[in-house]
Each structure stands twice: as structure tokens, then as C-alpha cells.
């Protein structure tokens, strides 16, 4: 386990992109039953850090994870969940409104009311000036960060080093 802003973070994470059933991306499909069984098996073996995205299988990865989380309920293990803000399907816009919509879609599919880590997914795909302008995606994710629904602000891209930070963050040590 590692510490990230007071949150104990497991050193190993289950990436769930293929579990959303993305045959065009991976060249194979993962059926819902197989994906759910994989997630159950991982949790049963103590793998409690799950990374997903609103974009994986158009939300199917999150729906499948949510199925397992709802089944395990309060008696299940404490799971650390990371998800990502993504544009609406077929769009190239990740503005502040979309960040909040993406967050709401993810938490609804997952069946949770908060996320431990929330990323701007591949922000290099979007106009930097739009992301950092007042009311843009960075402001939206910072607003989520200061609310009880989000533990940590991150970005799934090297561009984060160029973004202005509200305060320094410790790095995660493996």
C-alpha cells in the first residue's frame, strides 16, 4: 500500500478497459458474464484498486463493475475506485459541464456516491486553453475535488505537469 493525500492506495490496480467489451479496440470481446466473474475473482483475491472510465465500452465497464459492487454491498471489501472524465460519445469537447456530467454518469453506473481518484482522460486530445479557462474542465474537476464526492485530482496524461496546481501533491511510491 502507498499513501496518496491520506488515502491508502494499493500498489496494484485492475485496469478494466477490455472488460467493457471493446472488440474494435482489442480485437476480441469480453462477455458480461466473463467480465463480472473477472471483477469478482480480483476482489476475492484482494485486488481492491479498480481503474475504469466513462469511455470504456461506452460505460459498459463501469456498469459491470457496479454490478459486482452492488452484489458485495457493505459486507464486501473497501474498494478504491479511479475513473475518468470523458467527452460525450462522438464528441471532442471536455468542458466543465461535461466533466460534471461524466462524473454523474460514472457514479450512477458504479452505484457509488463518490470516487477516490478522478482523472481528466487523455487531456492532450482537447484544446489546452479551453481546459484551463474559467469554468473549464480544470475548474470543474477542482470543484469536485473540494466536495466530499472526490478524493484526488489527477490527469491521465503528461500534460498535467503544465497545468496550474492549487497546491502541491505528494507522489505515489511503488
Short description:
This protein is an alpha/beta fold. It has helices spanning 23-26, 32-44, 60-72, 96-110, 128-132, 137-145, and strands spanning 2-4, 7-9, 14-15, 49-51, 80-85, 115-121, 150-156. The N and C termini lie close together (8 Å).
Please tag this protein with its features:
alpha/beta; TIM Barrel; 34% helix; two-stranded antiparallel ribbon; 174 residues; 6 helices
Describe this structure in words.
It is a single chain. Helices cover 34% and strands 18% of the residues. The protein is an alpha/beta fold and 174 residues long. It has a single domain, classed as Alpha-Beta Barrel (TIM Barrel), CATH 3.20.20. The chain has a five-stranded parallel sheet, with helices on one face. The chain has a two-stranded antiparallel sheet with strand order 1-2. α3 links the parallel β4 and β5. The longest helix is centred in the middle third of the chain and has 15 residues. The C terminus is likely disordered.
Helix content: 25-40%
Q: CATH first level: which class?
A: Alpha Beta
Number of strands: 7
- N-end to C-end Cα span: 8 Å
Low-confidence regions: 153-174
Which topology does CATH recognise?
Answer: TIM Barrel
Major sheet: arrangement of strands: 3-4-5-6-7
Helix and strand content put the structural class at alpha/beta
Provide the CATH superfamily: NADP-dependent oxidoreductase domain
Tally of DSSP helical segments: 6
Largest sheet: 5 strands, parallel
Q: Return Rg in Å.
A: 16 Å
Beta-strand percentage range: 15-25%
Q: Please indicate the count of domains.
A: 1
H/E element sequence:
EEEHHEHEHEHHE
Shape assignment: globular
